[in-house]
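A protein record pairs a chain with a discrete description of its three-dimensional fold. The shape at a given residue is found from the number at the same position. Here is what such a record looks like in full:
>
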Amino acid sequence: MTQSFTGRAAVTGIGMTDLSRRSGRTELELAVSACQGALTDAGLTAADVDAVLCYHLSDSAGVNQVAATLGVPSAVWTNELYGGGTQSASVLGDAAMLIDAGIAEHVLVFRALNGRSGVRMGQARLALDQQFTLPYGMAGPVHLFALAAQRWMHDTGATEKDLAAVVRQSRELARTNPRALRRDGLDEAGYFASPPVATPLRRVDCCQETDGGAALVISATATADVLRPGSPRIHTVVRGGGPGATTMNAASDVSRLFSAYLADPLYRTAGMKPSDVDLALLYDAYSPIVLQQLEDFGFAERGSAGSYVRSGDTLPSAGLPLNPHGGLLSEGYVHGLNNVVEAVRQLRGEGTNQVRSAEVALCTGFGGSYGSAAVLVAG
């Protein structure tokens, strides 16, 4: 059962700013720079854009402000999606649906934030439901996901050495990524020397806090084939979750992440199975969720993801290359959209630690028991 937009939209352009801890630029400047880069990469101008989408947590420039600054025609479809990592994969589906519906031929998508020098995730304004969790020390996302990880590790027998394997691979792969904020290697002793933040998470288990922007141009496939042959196609996108969804503390099983709910619908809709995936760009805000996703999406048996990573099977030259650019843990954190940008690079044959013969990429977006997943295929 494919979706009506399957294969009808392709990513023709990608753009990113430098990633830093102090950009010295406004969110508007970051967004405009990333968008201009994506348009140039696609061989287009602002006048060609029919729709502009973005997602944010009240920490970015508005979509209409960015569109006006770029010079996008005023009578286009614009939309701001409220959310963070959950949107990084599903925004591809929103763009593809606009194309499938005949509303747009070229859709510009961006995410920009000063996530280190500006509004930091742990310092964001409290949501209403947090009045029930803050008294118990739940001061931000890291505490919720540490709780989930602690329970999952108890149930599966996963250890801190399993978490270390994820972080160490990320650091090693980022060595050759000139965009990465962390290009220093990390041995096991260095991992355990990292200070704890919230058990079982250490500082190195948490993604980078980053200033930066990323953007995509998504075009109708027929146009993309002329404009930029070989552009990766949007094949399948799913979004959803389970009990508790956006309020993870209310979930019936706090350790059950979005991937447990979305894996089956994704494969069923895509007409694929885990062995069809050549490359995984998994949302890696925290190291344990990488291991959980590897198991939920069927790449490793329950309780074995740590040994799977340690075996080397997730390296760029192995069976399931995982975040070959270093991911959010090492490259930087543009709320997952930079992982999607890397998926496009890999499917074009232009990636960091390029994966050989990559034809199918899985991208995920995370927000607890709620999230999204997308399959991109080479053009």
